[in-house]
Design brief:
Low-confidence stretches: 1-15, 288-300
Number of strands: 0
Radius of gyration: 21 Å
CATH architecture: Up-down Bundle
Oligomer: single chain
Distance between the termini: 51 Å
Mean pLDDT: 81
Shape: globular
Number of domains: 1
Largest sheet: none
Length: 300
C-alpha cells in the first residue's frame, strides 16, 4: 500500500502542476504570445488615452470628445457578429496577420499626421474608427487560436491568463500613456501603439500552425444564424450578454467625457483618472457575473 501511495503521489503532483493557473506559461509558444499580447494591449490603452486627450486639444466640444469613444465602440455593433463567423471560415493565422497589419498602418499614419499637426477632429474620429474596426475584426480569431497553442489540459488556465494579461495592460497602459503624452505628445503615443503590434505579428509570422482537418464551411450568413440560435438556446450565455450589455451602456459615459473633466490635471492626471475608472469598470461586471451564477437561471 505504501508503494502504491508513493507511486500515485508524483502523478497527482504532476496533474496538479499541469492544471495550475500558471501552467500555460511553461509552454514556450503560449508564453511568447502572452508577452507580445500584453505589450500590444498596453499600446492600445496608450492609443485610447492619446486619442481622447488629443481631441480636447483640438476642440472642447463635449459632443466631439464623446464621439472618440463612440468611434472606438461603433465597430462592435457593426461587425462583431460577421467577424466571429468569419473567424470560423478562414485561416486564422493569415487573417490575424491582416488585421494586425491593418492596425499598424492606421496607428502609424495617425501618429505621423499628429506630429505634423495635420489632424483635425473628424480625421481623428476616422482613424479611431478604423483602428476600432481592425480590433473588432481581430478579436474573435484571436480568442479562437488559444486551443491551438496550448495543450488541452491547459486550455482553461490559458483563457484566464489571457484575461489577466488584458487587465495588466489596462492597469498600466493609461498611466503610461499619460506620461508619454505629457512628455512627448499624443503623436508619439500613437507611434508606440503601432510599434507594439510587431511582437504579435512576429509571433504569427513564425508560428507553424498545426494541421487541422478542414470541416465543411458555409457562408458567413449561415454561421451567423447558427451562432444566434446557440445563444437563444443557451440561457446562461444569453443572461451574461444581457447583463454585460446593460452595464456597458450605462457605464460608457464616464470614460467618454473623462478627458474634459481631467483637462485641468494634464495628460498624466487624465491617465491616472482613467486607470481609476477602469478599475471600477473592471470590478463591476465581475460582480454581475457572480450574481448571474449565484441566482438560478429560471429566476432571470
Amino acid at each position: 500500500m505504501n508503494q502504491a501511495l508513493k507511486m500515485s503521489t508524483p502523478a497527482s503532483l504532476a496533474s496538479r502542476s499541469a492544471n495550475s493557473a500558471l501552467a500555460p506559461l511553461r509552454e514556450p509558444l503560449f508564453r511568447s504570445l502572452w508577452i507580445a499580447a500584453v505589450i500590444s494591449y498596453t499600446g492600445t490603452w496608450m492609443q485610447n488615452v492619446g486619442a481622447g486627450w488629443l481631441m480636447t486639444q483640438l476642440t472642447m466640444s463635449p459632443l466631439m470628445v464623446s464621439l472618440v469613444t463612440a468611434a472606438t465602440t461603433l465597430p462592435v455593433f457593426l461587425v462583431i457578429l460577421p467577424a466571429g463567423a468569419l473567424a470560423d471560415l478562414v485561416d486564422r493565422r493569415r487573417f490575424l496577420l491582416i488585421t494586425q497589419s491593418w492596425m499598424v498602418v492606421a496607428a502609424a499614419l495617425l501618429g505621423i499626421l499628429t506630429l505634423q499637426h495635420f489632424v483635425t477632429p473628424w480625421m481623428l474620429l476616422l482613424f479611431t474608427f478604423i483602428l476600432g474596426l481592425g480590433a473588432v475584426m481581430n478579436d474573435p480569431a484571436w480568442q479562437a487560436i488559444t486551443p491551438e497553442i496550448v495543450c488541452p489540459e491547459n486550455h482553461a488556465p490559458a483563457v484566464a491568463l489571457n484575461s489577466v494579461g488584458f487587465n495588466v495592460a489596462r492597469a498600466f497602459g493609461p498611466a503610461l500613456g499619460g506620461l508619454v503624452i505629457a512628455a512627448a505628445g499624443s503623436g508619439v503615443a500613437f507611434l508606440l501603439n503601432a510599434a507594439s503590434f510587431f511582437g504579435v505579428i512576429f509571433f504569427l509570422y513564425r508560428w507553424k500552425r498545426p494541421h487541422i482537418e478542414q470541416v465543411a464551411t458555409g457562408r458567413v450568413r449561415d454561421a451567423l444564424v447558427a451562432g444566434l440560435r446557440y445563444v437563444r438556446g443557451a440561457p446562461p450565455v444569453r443572461s451574461i450578454l444581457i447583463r454585460t450589455g446593460a452595464f456597458s451602456l450605462a457605464a460608457s459615459s464616464l470614460p467618454a467625457l473623462l478627458p474634459i473633466l481631467a483637462r485641468p490635471h494634464g495628460a498624466t492626471g487624465y491617465g491616472l483618472l482613467l486607470d481609476s475608472s477602469d478599475l471600477v469598470l473592471w470590478l463591476e461586471p465581475r460582480c454581475s457575473l457572480v450574481c448571474a451564477f449565484v441566482f438560478p437561471w429560471t429566476d432571470l
